[in-house]
Amino acid sequence: MWYYNKTQFTDEQIPEGAVGFVYMMKAVIGGEVKFYIGKKGFYSNRKVKLGKKEEALRTDKRTKTYKLVSKLDYQNYYSSNAALKEAHKNGVVITRVILKICFNKLDMTYYETKYLFTTNALESAQYLNDNILGKFYKSKIL
Predict the structure, then answer these.
(1) Helix (H) or strand (E) segment spanning residue 82
(2) In this predicted model, what pLDDT tens digit does every residue of 74-116 receive, in sequence order?
């Protein structure tokens, strides 16, 4: 269950034009409170090859693929972090909070980075984040 503005968040509350969100997860792992900040998209864009029927009907012979937009299952998402995934498998209660709903991917990256820096995620042992943008690593800073 996701929370946004201290209330449960459902699919009906996704604003029109929203691309994704920045989130914070909180769990008690090994007797310590741990946090993780990340981003997640509401939708996925994939290129899919045309079938034989569609291939015969297309007017522009230069195109080989078309875009397929599918809704991601964010409701069952428990982070890309291995420790959080393992904790979820072991039945640990994980509080999932949406910090910011974003309307483009650039905003998602910006706000995720902003929250990581403002919370000092790499400098704190409470945060499970290992790096920011693949450039700043916890192991190299501390």
Answers:
(1) helix 82-89
(2) 888 888 899 999 999 999 999 999 999 999 999 999 999 999 9
pLDDT at position 52 over 70: yes
Domain ranges for the chain, please list them.
2-42+73-131
pLDDT at 64: 67
Question: How, if at all, do strands 94-102 and 2-4 pair?
Answer: parallel
* CATH class assigned to 2-42+73-131: alpha beta
DSSP string, 67-120: EEEEE--GGG---S-HHHHHHHHTT--EEEEEEEEESSHHHHHHHHHHHHHHTT
| pTM for this entry | 0.83
For 75, half-sphere exposure in the C-beta direction (CA atoms, 13 angstrom radius) is: 10
Rounded CA-CA distance 129/113 in Å is 11
